[in-house]
């Protein structure tokens, strides 16, 4: 059985020791590591214990061959949207393959720290459908703008970032635009 315990654990930023202590009854980090790598057989009992420790369903820990792994595209902080400094996998979600992920690391606007915002890329001729919605737009050098699309002037997009007292950004002829389509928030 192929499992995705490691990717889910890393996406939740937990160590082997964290998961081991959260198991009921607690176990050792070595055991969790062996179950992750497949050097120890992952029984249904272990699968359920680890799923409970990670606060996910057991089905989310079993990788299906046709599942697509997603990585965070951008991080949203009160200072704006930025590219991650290292790859950041996400827990498996039933989200379309073409979706882009934005992880909120500092609360801004309606978004809280820990939120994942899934954005759907649009074709250039569909940009108008994103007016008055939150969008993610790339800028040169791995930078991004995440904000409300408030206007379009030819190939120029006018975006209002979400923080209070922020200035409007104008992005000319972006290579793509993705509209916020789904918010995933842990309770």
TrEMBL record:
Gene3D superfamilies given in the database record: lambda repressor-like DNA-binding domains
Residues of the HTH cro/C1-type domain: 5-61
Pfam families associated with the record: HTH_3 (PF01381)
InterPro entries: Cro/C1-type_HTH, Lambda_DNA-bd_dom_sf
GO molecular function terms attached to this record: DNA binding
Matching SMART domains: HTH_XRE (SM00530)
Listed name of the protein: Helix-turn-helix transcriptional regulator
Organism of origin: Flavisphingopyxis soli
């Amino acid at each position: 059985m192929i499992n995705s315990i490691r990717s889910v654990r890393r996406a939740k930023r937990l160590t082997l020791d964290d998961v081991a202590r959260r198991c009921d009854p607690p176990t050792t980090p070595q055991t969790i590591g062996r179950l992750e790598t497949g050097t120890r057989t992952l029984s249904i009992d272990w699968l359920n214990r680890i799923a409970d420790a990670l606060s996910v369903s057991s089905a989310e820990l079993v990788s299906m061959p046709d599942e697509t792994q997603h990585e965070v595209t951008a991080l949203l902080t009160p200072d704006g949207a930025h590219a991650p400094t290292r790859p950041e996998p996400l827990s498996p979600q039933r989200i379309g393959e073409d979706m882009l992920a934005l992880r909120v690391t500092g609360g801004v606007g309606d978004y809280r720290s820990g939120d994942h915002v899934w954005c759907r890329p649009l074709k250039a001729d569909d940009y108008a459908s994103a007016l008055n919605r939150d969008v993610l737009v790339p800028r040169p050098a791995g930078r991004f703008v995440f904000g409300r699309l408030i206007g379009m002037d030819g190939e120029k997009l006018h975006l209002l970032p979400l923080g209070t007292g922020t200035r409007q950004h104008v992005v000319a002829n972006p290579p793509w635009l993705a509209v916020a389509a789904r918010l995933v928030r842990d309770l």
